[in-house]
UniProtKB/TrEMBL annotation:
Keywords: ATP-binding, Cell membrane, Kinase, Membrane, Nucleotide-binding, Phosphoprotein, Transferase, Transmembrane, Transmembrane helix, Two-component regulatory system
Membrane-related topology note: Multi-pass membrane protein
Lineage top rank: taxon: Bacteria
InterPro entries documented for this protein: Bact_2-comp_sensor_kinase, HAMP_dom, HATPase_C_sf, HATPase_dom, His_kinase_dom, Sig_transdc_His_kin-like_C, Sig_transdc_His_kin_internal
One Pfam family hit: His_kinase
Catalysis performed (reactions): ATP + protein L-histidine = ADP + protein N-phospho-L-histidine
Residues covered by the Histidine kinase domain: 380-578
Annotated transmembrane regions: 284-305
Principal location listed in the UniProt entry: membrane
HAMP domain mapped to chain residues: 305-359
The keyword Endoplasmic reticulum is assigned to this record: no
Provenance organism: Paenibacillus terreus
UniProt name for this protein: histidine kinase
Compartments it resides in: Cell membrane
Length: 591
């Protein structure tokens, strides 16, 4: 016993200390990860939106440089087809082109490292950069010009150059009237022009921030590391215009379309970065849990030792009590003033009372039995009362006061019915009201699990039967049937006329009975009033059956059917509008 108590205390205290910490730690870790994920998604979607706008404005400024060249009068004059122009006029026009290109080049800033203009009709290429200021006559159009024509586009971005830090923005020159391609203007630009804007997304290191083409392929990564997986690249290629985000197996990918050129601004965040906060929370929680477990074990051993020793001593004293032989003295009291001493005193007093009760039991007469029967009629199962009070206590803190009041009112009405109606017979309506108060409490206790139905024919409600007949039988259904069933509980009560009598059926889907137990119980029910006493756990059912037979005769009473694992069906037969008289016609219930 001592080892059992100590072991249970140790296990209980360890579980009480460790399990809540593990559960709270897991919940905190998941909440941390979810919160971090939500914050990262919201922040990056907002940042992607505004950064995409700023990046689009930068590309618009680059387009404006090209438009400045396109709309210049000098370029229009040069592109005009005038065969009669002299060489001096053409030279003057070419000089104007250089002046325009130089003006745009030096006003564009350090990030534009070169400008070129190709005129298809004359196959001439004007080039301006830090190394040259040149005019060439080409035997074939530049590759970039052919790419424009082949792709049927007005502009393209080319990253096929030898220097990965640069790209070229190529826009065609079209005749206004028929959109005939007359040439192309090319800007050679450093990608670093966009670094300051990209820092809005990735901080100073810009890891995971890049610019991709409309096909999802990476074009520029300022960190120099390829952060985009093949899975993310394929997903990007299939998406429409942004902004938005998606998850892959390893990363969160945020994207936005850069107007007006159709590139994609992309930010990649590894999933491990978001999960790291949850891992840290879990690590700290498990560390605290381990320390708590060690302290709990030490505390449990100490408490178990202090608690188990007097309990074992008390148990030894209990084994020494002889309730029959009055000559043997009861164990002496230890004089303790704590709970153990309180138990010893109560045990001593209880032993004295039990001895007295055993002596008086032999002298009980028929009048005493009758009094005990009346007391039995009036009792409420203490376990039911205890559970109901616990239910009320829980509802006070968890639900509205009105819900608690309903349970208190039902319990009060049950006591009122027992105390204030002393008659031996009660109307079926009164019995049904008492049952409804009991079922109201049970349905609150087992909400969602108990399914209860009631079918009543109103003309049967004026019949009479012994007081407290229905509720004890229903209570037996819970105690001996439903409480042993793991699935949902079903309890059906039906009341109807049957010939000149009333048939009350109480059916449940509980554990049922074995054939041997059913036969034993049927024999006890058939024993009549002589079998009223000393029937163990079935005293409630037998009591009801005996009282019905005493009031109405042997034709009335209780029959029972049951099948193990499928439930029990109890039938109560009473006269209709009985008033205490009996009906001799056995056809009252249909034969």
């Amino acid at each position: 016993m001592q080892r059992s108590i100590r072991s249970k205390l140790i296990i209980t205290m360890v579980l009480l200390a460790v399990l809540p910490i593990i559960a709270i730690t897991a919940l905190a870790a998941e909440n941390s990860r979810t919160s971090m994920e939500s914050e990262v998604i919201d922040t990056n979607l907002s940042n992607m939106k505004w950064t995409g706008i700023y990046l689009g404005e930068q590309f618009s400024q680059l387009n404006n440089l090209i438009y400045t060249i396109q709309v210049s009068p000098g370029l229009s004059e040069y592109l005009t087809d005038r065969e009669e122009d002299s060489l001096s006029n053409r030279f003057a026009e070419q000089r104007k082109i250089f002046e325009i290109l130089n003006s745009v080049y030096y006003s564009a800033g350090n990030h534009v490292v070169g400008i070129s203009l190709y005129v298809h009709e004359t196959s001439t290429l004007f080039t301006i950069n830090s190394m040259q200021n040149d005019l060439q006559t080409l035997s074939a159009p530049p590759v970039a010009y052919d790419d424009l024509a082949r792709q049927h586009k007005d502009f393209i971005i080319d990253t096929s150059g030898k220097d990965p830090e640069k790209f070229t923005l190529i826009r065609s020159i079209n005749r206004f009237e028929n959109q005939e391609r007359l040439g192309a203007i090319t800007l050679e630009i450093r990608w670093s022009a966009f670094n300051q804007t990209l820092e809005l997304l990735g901080g100073m290191d810009k890891k995971g921030v890049l610019i991709a083409g409309s096909d999802g392929k990476e074009m520029y990564d300022p960190s120099g590391e390829s952060a985009l997986s093949s899975e993310a690249t394929e997903h990007l290629a299939a998406l429409g215009p942004g902004p938005g985000y998606f998850r892959t197996s390893l990363e969160y990918v945020f994207y936005n379309t850069v107007d007006p050129i159709g590139l994609r601004l992309v930010k990649v965040i590894p999933k491990r970065d978001i999960d790291q906060s949850a891992i840290n929370t879990m690590t700290y929680g498990l560390l605290v849990g381990a320390v708590s477990a060690v302290l709990s074990v030490l505390l449990a051993v100490f408490v178990a030792w202090r608690t188990a020793r007097p309990i074992v001593k008390l148990a030894t004293s209990m084994r020494g009590i002889d309730l029959i032989d009055e000559r043997k003295e009861l164990p002496a009291r230890s004089g303790r003033t704590d709970e153990i001493g309180y138990l010893e005193n109560n045990l001593h007093d209880m032993a004295v009372r039990i001895r007295s009760h055993i002596q008086n039991e032999y002298k009980i007469n028929l009048e005493k039995r009758t009094a005990e029967l009346k007391a039995l009629q009036s009792q409420i199962n203490p376990h039911f009362l205890q559970n109901t009070l616990q239910l009320i206590g829980g509802m006070i803190f968890a639900r509205q006061p009105a819900d608690s009041y309903e349970i208190i009112r039902s319990l009060s009405e049950m006591f009122r019915y027992i105390v204030r109606e002393p008659d031996h017979l009660a109307s079926l309506q009164s019995e049904l009201n008492h049952l409804q108060h009991y079922m109201h409490i049970q349905q609150k206790r087992f909400s969602g699990r108990l399914h209860y139905t009631l079918e009543v024919e109103d003309e049967a409600l004026q019949s009479e039967l012994p007081k407290l007949s229905l509720q004890p039988i229903v209570e037996n259904s819970f105690t001996h049937g439903l409480e042993f069933r793991q699935e949902d509980w079903k309890l059906d009560v039906s009341i109807k006329r049957s010939g000149a009598g009333v048939l009350i059926r109480i059916r449940d889907n509980g554990a049922g009975m074995t054939p041997e137990r059913l036969a034993e119980l049927r024999g006890m029910l058939a024993a009549g009033t002589d079998g009223l006493w000393a029937r163990g756990k079935s005293i409630g059912l037998i009591n009801v059956a005996a009282r019905i037979r005493m009031h109405f005769g042997p034709m009335y009473g209780i029959s029972i059917n049951s099948e193990q694992g499928k439930g029990t069906d109890i039938c109560i037969r009473i006269p209709w509008e009985s008033g205490g008289w009996q009906i001799d016609d056995q056809s009252a219930f249909g034969g």
